[in-house]
Amino acid sequence: MKDVISRIEKKVWQTIPGENRIGLLDGLSGIAMFYNFLSKTYNNIEYQEKLLLIIDKINNLISEESNSSSLCSGLAGYGWVLLNLNNDDIEIDESYFESLDLILAEDLKELLNKNNFDFLHGAMGIVFYFINRNNIAKTDFLIETLNNFSRELIGKINSNLNDVLIRESAYHNDKCYYFGIAHGVSGLINFLIYLSNNFKELEIDVKEPLNICIDFLKKGKKYDLKSKQFFPNVHILKSEISTSALLGWCQGDLGISNSLYNASIFLNNNELKNEAIALMDNTKNISLSESNVKDFGICHGSTGIIMQYHFASLKFGIDYCNEIKIWDDVMRFQTKNFSEFLAHTGNGQYIEEASILKGASGLGMVLLTINNEINPNWLSCINLH
């Protein structure tokens, strides 16, 4: 394993000079987290020095140009990484976080005005940062910000869930809603549970909105012969067309199984638990050719599938080793046995990618996780828990 991780790290490091994205999931912040794990796992001074160089580069990029506030690509994601490094060589002054809090709180208001609750690119991602920040700082400002957001989100779910879910489709020129864990109702389910479990000062109950989301999700359940899954990726409102989901983290039954299982534990609902397990078990029948998987990444590739089966094994107490082996073989083929890391761009092209969500650092972190070298808690940053 150490040799494989070393080969992955060398490929990741080669991308750093040309990488100017600061993101947690799509850039340098996530890569910094990868190096922090490497430094702690292997007690290697070289990895520590590279981590410090990456942090310096991120700070320089932030000072030179404006950045988004999102968890995926912007300041919320970088802030979350800084909160979780726990590295003696990286000291962050409290005033830095206080300034970041104010910036993100203003951006949060704008996102709420636009009804943009998305986890990766919208309000829930910023609030994910605030939840983690509050667990360390617990200021009146943070508690008030989180409770104000929670009341608005839950109020909208309770009155009309569509106000939270419906958005413009980038591909169909029409309004739509998603089902998957990245952008859809199953992701909202996971977020509500995370909010309740990790924000102890929450002043409003999440059970009613949680049941509303579950009922909404179940209404969209219908077996699709094309994908061999029960839930679509997206439903287009004007045409009333639901598009087939691929097998992956971002969409499809794997992530939905995770959210339903989490809901079953939270609500003490055995029927829901059995439904979650049945969803996961059904995916075992999906082959590579049927999966529409075209690369190795976490987002919509083989690494994300491996991680989902591993995580399900831990949570369900069910052995998915055979499925992990099948997709591990696929991943090794796609990466030419860890020698190249190409992400599919969606138009038939492939590019070298080092990020967490679609690239080599994400693969490295998953391998460290399934080999019990690092704690899987980092998966909360992709709304998986």
Written description of the protein model:
- The protein is mostly helical and 385 residues long.
- The chain has helices spanning 2-15, 28-42, 45-64, 75-84, 94-113, 123-137, 140-159, 162-165, 185-198, 207-219, 253-267, 270-282, 288-291, 302-316, 321-334, 360-370; strands at 167-168, 175-178, 234-236, 241-243, 342-344, 350-352.
- The protein starts with a helix and ends in a 15-residue tail after the last helix.
- Helix 2 (28-42) runs parallel beside helix 16.
- The chain contains 16 helices and 6 strands.
- The strands form 2 sheets. Strands 1-2-3-4 form a 4-stranded antiparallel sheet.
Keywords summarizing the entry:
385 residues, mainly alpha, 5% strand
Classify the secondary structure makeup into a structural class. Answer: mainly alpha
Helical run tally = 16
The order of strands across the largest sheet is 1-2-3-4
What fraction, in percent, of the residue positions are helical?
55-70%
Spans with pLDDT under 50 lasting ≥5 residues? Answer: none
Tally the beta strands.
6
- Compute the separation of the termini in Å: 25 Å
- The residue-averaged pLDDT reads 95
Mind telling me the C-alpha Rg? Answer: 20 Å
Globally, the shape reads: globular
- Beta-strand percentage? under 5%
> What does the main sheet amount to?
4 strands, antiparallel
| N-to-C SSE string, H for helix and E for strand | HHHHHHHHEEHHEEHHHHHEEH
